[in-house]
Design brief:
mainly beta, Immunoglobulin-like, 201 residues, 6-stranded antiparallel beta sheet, 2 helices, 2 domains
Length: 201
């Protein structure tokens, strides 16, 4: 008797490894993409001597203020603010009293509040020199009409990465027809790089 056995091939449902892990791969890809986008959107703390990076901007009472961090050719850091009043308007010198001269005018200032993480290392300087002008029989030092930049040498906070910080500005824009309300000690939020995150010059 011929004993034969019908042959039925054993079949298995074969699922490639990459198919079994496709969901995990998709999740990993999404994570990597988000990490790439996050790193691309974060400003690099790469500031070479002679370069500047914007930190913040603000506007109030028709005066635009742009704040930046500049590294001098010698490798020092300057916190700088450019004040741009409307065409034909002028700003007052940084050196007049906080309440003006007998109430007239207000200084143009860039300052670090007491809780700032940055430290001032020197005196505030100006991009243009003021001239004396007479207002109501009083003489006040006034900048020429147009933008003025103030620079403050600073030490950056210790550490790596970017840190939240604040600065404050004061200004008052005037022309021959009158003055806009003064802005006193306006606080502006900035993000600054830690000193250890910037390479040596």
């Amino acid at each position: 008797m011929n004993h034969t056995r019908d042959f039925f091939p054993i079949t298995r449902t074969f699922q490639p490894r990459f198919a079994r892990t496709s969901r995990g791969l998709a999740l990993l890809g999404a994570i990597l993409a988000l990490a790439f986008l996050a790193s691309a959107c974060t400003p690099r703390a790469d500031l070479k001597p002679g370069q500047s990076m914007p930190l913040a901007s603000a506007s109030e009472n028709s005066v635009d203020v742009s704040v930046r961090l500049t590294r001098t050719p010698e490798g020092y850091f300057l916190l700088e603010a450019t004040f741009t009043p409307p065409a034909g308007d002028h700003l007052y010198s940084k050196d007049i009293p906080p309440t003006g001269v007998d109430g007239l005018g207000r200084p143009t200032l860039l300052e670090l509040p007491p809780d700032s993480k940055m430290t001032a290392l020197g005196a505030l300087t100006e991009s243009v020199a003021p001239s004396m002008q007479t207002f109501e029989s009083l003489q006040l030092p006034v900048y020429p009409a147009g933008p003025v930049t103030l620079s403050l040498p600073v030490a950056l906070p210790e550490g790596t990465g970017w840190m939240d910080d604040v600065i404050s500005v004061t200004f008052m824009a005037c022309n021959d027809n009158g003055c806009k309300p003064p802005v006193i000690g306006k606080v502006i939020a900035v993000r600054v790089p830690g000193a250890d995150s910037i390479s040596a010059p």
